[in-house]
Amino acid sequence: MSSPKKDLLSLQELSTEEIKSIIAGAIELKKQRLNNAPTVLQNKTGVMIFEKPSLRTRITFETAINELGGHAINLASEMVGMGKRESVTDVARNLERIVHLIVARTYSHQTVELLAKHSSIPVINALTDKFHPCQALAFGMTLQEHLKGDKKPKIAFIGDSNNVCNSLMVLSAKLGYDFSVVCPEKYCPSADLLNTCTTIAKSTGSEIKVTSDLKGAVKNATVLYTDVWTSMGQEHESEQRRCDFASFQLNAEILSIAPKEALVSHCLPAHRGEEITSDVLDSEQSIAFDEAENRLHVQKAVIVHLFS
To answer: Which positions are catalytic?
Structure first.
C-alpha cells in the first residue's frame, strides 16, 4: 500500500522532528553528493512551474531532481497560463497522470494550495507571496554548519515581513530560536501568523518579537538577516518602500553594534546599496552564499522526505 500523499507548502505542516530530520538529511546529502546518492526519483519526472523569475530556485531544483535520478521539466509561466489558459485544478489533474512531482513558484499561495488539493502527487512550494519554506530550511541548515556550541540562536530579521520572513519565523518558532522582526510598523507580519508562531514558540522555549528598534534588536543577535524591501509583484510600491525602509539598511554601522561573531545572511538576489551594503554582504561574517548553495542539498532532502 502506498504512503499517504505528502506536500511541502509551508513549514507549519512539518513537525519540529521532521524539520530537524530534513536538515540532518541535507547535511548528509551534501557530504555524499554524487557518491551513493539516493535514487528516489529513478524513472520519475518532476515538473517545475515558474510564474516568477528565478536563478537559485530553478537551478537548485533542476539539479536536485537530476541528482536523485529523475528527469526535470521546466514549464515557463507563459506556456501554462494557470488560471487563464487553463484552470489550476485542471493543470493539477493533468499533471498527476503524467509526472510524479510538481515544484511550483507562484504569485499567489492559493495556487500551490489548489495544485496540492487537486493532484495525487507531491507538490513543493518553491516560493509564493506568503511562504518560502525551502529558503528557511536552507537557512536552518547553514546555521547548523556555522554555529558552534549550544547557544540558542537569536535572529534579527530586518525588513519587510514577506514570504522569507514568514518562513524564517515559523522555522525559528519550531526549532526554539528567538526571532525578532525589525521593520516599520505598517510592514509587520499578519496577526494570524504572529499568533500562530507565538503559540508554537511557547512550547519550544523561544520568543517571537516585532520591533522598529533596529539598534536594540541587533545588539544581542546571533544572526542579522535581511531581504529586498520590494518583493516581486510589488514593484509599484518600490519608491514608497525605499522611503519607509531608508533607516533599516544593514550596513557596517549596524553590524558594528551586533556581537563581533554575529553572522549575516540574505536570501538573494540582493539590491546592494539598498537593504544591505556590499561590504557587509561580502564580509567574512556573511553566510548568504553558503545558504544559497544549501538550497540544493535541503531541497534534495525535502524530495527524499516526500518520497520516503
So the answer is: 105, 132, 135, 227, 267, 295
